[in-house]
Amino acid sequence: MTDTADLVGEIERLGAKLGATRESVNRRFIGQERVVELVLAALLSGGHALLVGLPGLGKTMLVETLATAMGLGASRIQFTPDLMPSDILGSEVLETAADGRRAFRFIEGPVFCQLLMADEINRASPRTQSALLQAMQERAVTVAGEHRRLGPPFHVLATQNPIEQEGTYPLPEAQLDRFLVQVDVAYPDRETERAILLATTGATEGASVQVFTAEELIAAQALVRRMPVGESVVEAILAVVRACRPGEPEALDVVRDTLAWGPGPRAAQALMLMARARAVLQGRLVPSVEDVAALAEPVLVHRMALNFTARARGDSLSDVISRVVAETLGIRGAEVAA
């Protein structure tokens, strides 16, 4: 009983601290509450987030603001077509000492940080994008045959322009799967854009303040993993994920007709962690089935692919996920998310 009371108290204190974090972030990144919630949930879950949107919507500013609010040492890599893997990971250089002896010394790349901003990640070639695969999954890199640890904490927040834009490359499927969540950053509505105009074109602009430290974030991530999850939530996660796999007996007809492949077990793990984090962010002690419905699209959309026929028809993954959520859970995911 005491352990339960202690856990409740810890979750409530974390919820209050996260409220202060959101307030700090919203001083600069105005009006996009769902975007902020999803990225914070990814950090609380110990994962990485991919922010997708057109240029000029504040994706880079959001990452910079979060680095300040969470107290994380940040590095930024501007991805370009000529970027090389060594520009990310680091490399060994041959140095000559004063006495004439020569030896190799490893110079760390920008990946050796706590929060890595991969800006416009899909402007680099697939070879360079793949340099992050080991770092994102294992929190380590192997350079010149030596295994080197990263963090903790270590998070990648990547920004991506729509793939239809000039000079972009689609991300490898293996790398997409390593992002816990894909966050679509849309145009602001009229009132939000009005608030942005008034807040950012004056003599001064709002500034974010530090709320967390790296150690407190690590403790918060451990606390999220201790949160209890009801059997109904576990079954909801399994129902949604398995229904999105064309080859599974549980797959819906719309999935078999539309998808080339569906999400793997990592998607179910991501949904479980994100549901817990969303509950804390909203001041609740346990996640609900509604959390699963609200998070299904951002967690699953980058882990699925339309088949040729569906692409020719102009189908969208978002519509497929919404139908799966509605049929498996009886909930309209878009309405819960809003």
TrEMBL record:
Organism: Paenirhodobacter enshiensis
CDD domains, A to Z: AAA (cd00009)
Lineage, uppermost ranks: Bacteria, Pseudomonadati, Pseudomonadota, Alphaproteobacteria, Rhodobacterales
PANTHER family assigned to the protein according to its UniProt record, in alphabetical order: MAGNESIUM-CHELATASE SUBUNIT CHLD (PTHR42759:SF1), MOXR FAMILY PROTEIN (PTHR42759)
Keyword Nucleotide-binding found: yes
GO MF term set: ATP binding; ATP hydrolysis activity
InterPro entries for the chain: AAA+_ATPase, ATPase_AAA-3, CbbQ/NirQ/NorQ/GpvN, ChlI/MoxR_AAA_lid, P-loop_NTPase
UniProt keyword annotation of Nucleotide-binding present: yes
Pfam families given in the database record: AAA_3, AAA_lid_2
SUPFAM superfamilies: P-loop containing nucleoside triphosphate hydrolases
Name of the protein this chain belongs to: ATPase AAA
Family: Belongs to the MoxR family.
SMART domains (alphabetical): AAA (SM00382)
